[in-house]
Predict the structure.
Amino acid sequence: MRLLSGMFALCLAFQVKAGSARDSNGNLRGSDIQGRQSNSTSISIQDAVAHPNATGTWPINGIDVTKPLLDPPSDDYGPGNGWSINIAVATNISWENDSTSVSNPAVITLEAPDNAFEGANSSTNYTENYQVCSFAWITNVWTIKDLEKFQDDVNGSCNGVISDECINDIKAALTGKPCSSFTSFDRPKSCHRALNNPSSFITNVTFNLPNGTSAAEGSSSHLFGNWPPYSNRSEVALRNAYDEALTNVYPVLLAYSYEDGENRSNYSVFRCIRANNIVEGSHKPDSFGDNRRSSAGRVSGSTTSAVTGMLLFSVILLL
């Protein structure tokens, strides 16, 4: 079985220049941020984050798409049922044939536990009755106050930065609809400035689900990857991009729809995803990055290392 994911994204990246502060070997002087000379954008983004600086695991109640969705669970914040939405962030990834800039990519995945697909070898293919849409909002420019509240968010509830009313309205607008509904999606009034409206760009990615002897194993489904923020190689720019990358927050909606001719049901999960676990040996961010807004209309700091905007829409079709 395979999951076919259609991802829609619009990415804007802005880069500024600053002086260099590197030793004769190309490493930053007096810095905890290490250059990754063996990495380049010729590799996949999954490979780029194989050795991340920070990660996050956000439990959810996931769905076994090899069985009918007859009794959808509730979207409770808590330990979940073994499923999770995960994030991995890497920094200072070199661009191929580019000695002036680096990338700080993030990848978000849907992780299934062992034995998650009990009907993987069933004679009835229930997966064809599912449509699973994944939406990620990435154009948001959070204020420092927003990011401070996100730091206290321990369960992905968004801690009031995105209100419960906004989350419920978004679920109502997108769950149970064709995944392409994002093209006519308008931000609910209840969301105020919390979320931006969708954009459009498409990429198709194929994934394998467990089958045969691997049916008892877990599974990972790629939801989206984001190469920015970018920066030049000065120490100031690298540190600002590093801090921004490790403190970014991505609202994610998973919308499940099931219909087999007799039964029809929907289920959705909304989480604010961030990398809240700094990997051993990596530097804890000193700030949120210089491009963050101190208020609703003002950017803090005198320089901006990178400003990244993207909305990614992922359609998961089960074949």
Remarks:
- The longest helix spans residues 235-247.
